[in-house]
Amino acid sequence: MARTYDVVLDLAVRPASNEIAVASADGLIRIVNTETLAEVRTIASHADWVTAIAWSDDGTRLASGSRDKSSKVFDGNTGEMIATYPGHAAAVRGVAFLADGKQVLSTGTDKKLHRWEVEGAKKVLEIPFGGEVYKIARGDTFVFVPSADNQLRRITLADNKVTNTLAGYQDWVLSTALHAANNRVAGGSMNGEVRLWNAADGTLIRNWIAKP
Q1: Which of 22, 112, 159, 201 counts the highest number of beta carbons within 10 A?
Q2: pTM confidence score
Q3: Is the CATH number of domain 134-212 2.40.10.480?
Q4: CA pair distance 144, 163, nearest whole angstrom
């Protein structure tokens, strides 16, 4: 049976399962069984567009970001809200769990990357950027963060330092995808360009225009 949703803004596959989380502009998060297309549960907690979602590595928790200026964490099995982080005071664009599931990274239109603890929703630190910050791609010990200042940055999680700045884009970098096994990271910009980089040393492998 086909499902009809409002504008879908992000998707996240639940690890080791046949479920996917769907974030949409109606303010809802839907957990859907990918085999039957049945909605397992619906989470209605945000007051505006849900712009970003991410599962913890063990699939027990789900993080979200919204245009309502909050980031939240939910129990993956019940949908019960565990934490609400209000620290951005602006629309949230990206979320990611750290490997242990105890901390979350979130980004937004406040031009910052926030790192915060799920327990108590307490801010650990923030890193400023030169433009709005978007969807996060996380490796085991680092993250790649795209920004509207036309750059993609690699940040190590041990010391929260920028270790590589991948430049050369002519427009806002809005998206990124990491293939950890092949040590590759891609970043896509508003003008349709995709750049593929070596994730370890930041050398450019190739670039192309993906739009027609």
Answers
A1: 22
A2: 0.93
A3: yes
A4: 10
Render pLDDT for 92-139 as a digit per residue (tens, 0 to 9). Answer: 999 999 999 999 999 999 999 999 999 999 999 999 999 999 999 999
d(CA 25, CA 145): 23
Q: Which CATH superfamily is domain 1-128 in?
A: YVTN repeat-like/Quinoprotein amine dehydrogenase (2.130.10.10)
Domain boundaries, the chain: 1-128, 134-212
Say which residues have a Cβ less than 8 Å from residue 181's Cβ, sequence separation at least 6. Answer: none
Tokens for 210?
Answer: 């993906």
Place of tokens 């913890």: 56
DSSP state, residue 37: -
Please answer whether residues 15 and 57 qualify as being in contact, where contact means their C-beta atoms are separated by less than 8 angstroms. yes
DSSP 8-state assignment for residue 18: S
Per DSSP, the three-state class of 34 is: coil
Q: Which two tokens stand for residue 165?
A: 């700045």
Distance CA 190, CA 171 (A): 6
- Residue 31, classed as helix, strand or coil, is strand
Give the whole-angstrom CA distance, residue 84 versus residue 79: 13
Categorize the per-residue pLDDT at 25 as very low, low, confident or very high, splitting at 50, 70 and 90: very high
With tokens 């993906």, the residue in question is 210
Q: Using CA atoms, how far apart are residues 116 and 24, in angstroms rounded to an integer?
A: 24
For 118-129, the DSSP string reads TGGGEEEEEEE-
